[in-house]
Amino acid sequence: xxxxxxxxxxxxxxxxxxxxxxxxxxxxxxxxxxxxxxxxxxxxxxxxxxxxxxxxxxxxxxxxxxxxxxxxxxxxxxxxxxxxxxxxxxxxxxxxxxxxxxxxxxxxxxxxxxxxxxxxxxxxxxxxxxxxxxxxxxxxxxxxxxxxxxxxxxxxxxxxxxxxxxxxxxxxxxxxxxxxxxxxxxxxxxxxxxxxxxxxxxxxxxxxxxxxxxxxxxxxxxxxxxxxxxxxxxxxxxxxxxxxxxxxxxxxxxxxxxxxxxxxxxxxxxxxxxxxxxxxxxxxxxxxxxxxxxxxxxxxxxxxxxxxxxxxxxxxxxxxxxxxxxxxxxxxxxxxxxxxxxxxxxxxxxxxxxxxxxxxxxxxxxxxxxxxxxxxxxxxxxxxxxxxxxxxxxxxxxxxxxxxxxxxxxxxxxxxxxxxxxxxxxxxxxxxxxxxxxxxxxxxxxxx
Length: 448
Fold this sequence. Notes:
- The chain has a single domain, classed as Chorismate synthase AroC (Chorismate synthase, AroC fold, 4-Layer Sandwich), CATH 3.60.150.10.
- 33% of the residues lie in helices and 17% in strands.
- The chain has 13 helices and 16 strands.
- Strands 1-2-3-5-4 form a five-stranded antiparallel beta sheet, with helices on one face. A five-stranded antiparallel beta sheet has the order 7-6-8-14-9.
- The mean pLDDT is 91.
C-alpha cells in the first residue's frame, strides 16, 4: 500500500487499521534533545477519540499511545544529561486497538458485502479485492486519524519553540455558522476545552493521573498495564460531566469546540435532532496559524497552499480553502487584493483575503484555512446499495457504531495536519535562509 507517508524534512508515515492490532506513527526529522511523554500525546488524542458523548461514536477506544523508539534510555556518557530525550533517530508511536469486541467485528462481517454509500468500502474492494481490510473499514476508517494527531502533537511542540502557533476549532456545524471571534478568545476557549476534557476523561484518571502508566516505564511494563486496562478503567474515579456547570464556569461547550457558546449550543441541539432521525450532518473546520515569517513554501508543485490542500486526505473532508476561498469567484481584483503599506518602517496589510499565502509562499500574515466536512456516510436510514460479490441490488441500514457528525472530532486532526505541513515547510525555509544569511549574498545588495 502506497500513499501512507508525507513530508520531506519532517516525514510522517502511518500504518495499521481500525480492527488490526493497532495504529503506528513513524516520524523522521524530529530534532534531538526534546522530551515528549505519552501523557502529552494522549492529552491531544483524547480530543478526537470516540466514546466521549452524544456527538461521537460509542466505540470505547482509549487511544493510549506508547512511545516506542527515538529516545535515549539513559544518559549517554558521564557529564551529560540526555536520558529520555530525543536522539534524532526515527520516533515511533504505537496506538494499540483495545476495543475490538467480536460482536462488533461480526456486525461488520454481516454487512460488508453491501457497501455503505458515501464510504470507501466499494472502491477499496475494487482495489484490494477479497483481501480488503473491510472490518471497520481498515485504514479507510476515521480511526487512522489518531496517527495524524500523534504526529501533529510533536510538530506543534517544535513549531511553538519557534513562535508558531496552530489553532483549530469548529466554524460551522449542521448549517449553523459561528460568528467572528477574536483569535485570543478562540485560543482561551481551546485551552479551557482541553483542560475540561482531560479533567473529565476516565482514561486519563485511570492511567496518567493515577501514575499507573508513565513514560519512564519499559515497553513490556506498559503492555502489562494496557492488558489490564478495562479493570483499571472500571476502578478509576469517574467525574460526571455537568454541561451546564462547565458552560457557566468556563463559557465553553464541553462536547464541541465552537468559541461562541450560544452558537455551540445551537449546533449540538441540531446535530442531535438530525441524529434522532437516523441521519448525520457535516460542517466546517477552521485552522489559524500565527508566527510564520514571510517566504515559507516552495514554488510550482511545492506551493504551501497546495501542500495544505493535502488535508483533503483526511476522511470526510471534501474541500479545503484559504482566506476568501471560493468567494474569490464573485470578487473583483480591487476587493480581493490585500493592499500593503508601510508603518514605522514595517510592512503591513490592509486585509488578509489571501489567507496568508500568495504565490504559494507565506506573507507573514496569519494563515487561515477552512475544511468542509461531509456528513458521516454511515447512517441509520435504509439506503440502496449492491452486493459486492454478485452485483445484485440490495438495501443497507447500518448497525455499526457511528458518529452523528464528524466535524466535532476532525478539528484536532486538521490542527495536527496543518502543523505537520507547516513544520516540514518551515524546516526547508530555515535551511534555505541559513545559506542566504551572509552579508555578501545578493539579497543584501543595496542595503546598508
